[in-house]
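Notes from the pairing session

We agreed to fold both candidates in a single pass and log them together. This is the raw record for the first candidate, unedited. Please don't reformat it; downstream parsing expects exactly this layout.

Candidate A
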Amino acid sequence: MLLHDSPKKKVSFADDFGGNLVTIHCITEISEHLLEKSLLITYDPFPTKWLIKQASKGKQKTPFKNISRPNIPPRQIGFQQPSSDYLRFQKNLEKKNVALENVVLKSNPDRIFGTIKVKNLAYEKSVFVRVSFDKWQSNSDIQAVYKYSNSAMFDTFEFEFEIPPFRPNESHIEFAVCYECCNVEHWDSNNGNNYVIL
């Protein structure tokens, strides 16, 4: 039996040629372009139960194919992501003690997720989002939840709420964020314009 000499394989590393073994990228803010391309989900006004009901009536073999939908545009964020201009975001946070950081539209079920930064003025604090689905004829307060942060100066809070499945024509979602601390309310309402989801 003849054994053939196979060519020896050689492994080289970047540092053998003066390169780095590791490259570290620090991301200090969320890119609005990244959010638009990968995180924002379009709004689908038909809940899954309705689709399954249509399928059970025999109108569709599978509930998600060939369903005619009314001409309702997808939900969109109607403002620039606050942290996309990081210097302005930091300036607002210093001035108002609270600032909406970012918002993401999610689906299944349709909902809004976001983060809020607050200045750490005291240990006891409450952060919430005041939201209206009917042009402020009524509103609800959604409590934000503390998210661990290693910063001693600022705390981060997260919020999430569902979007009603059916909406009247031209109804926008409007909201503002509030930080209660030491019996004082600090508001970020997008300079009085509220944050709007179209």
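Candidate B (folded immediately after A)
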Amino acid sequence: MRAPFRFPDDLLALQEAWLRTYADLAQAPADSGSTVLRRRLIALSGRLCTHPYWTAPTGWRAGGVELRRAAAAAAAAAAAAAAAAAAHSPTAAAAGRETSCTSRPANPPTEGGD
């Protein structure tokens, strides 16, 4: 098994921004004026391709896919952490108690059936 790639934080941040921009562009309606998103995607692509990390002997082919995977995993972990934090907030807990469909009865039945 090959050792995992170690990417600089700024390169990971660039790839995460590229993934977010690409997702935003994919979700944008055709008539929404997506020029800003397309230009941002092009600029981020240029910055990704010319990052000093790629001048190392391993090059783009060796790490490009791994960079995209690492950035997607980091973005997913951040989204999961945000969702977990929101679910554990006092406001969310109170809302969950009000709308829970798995609530228990106030007086559970006893084994004797009394």
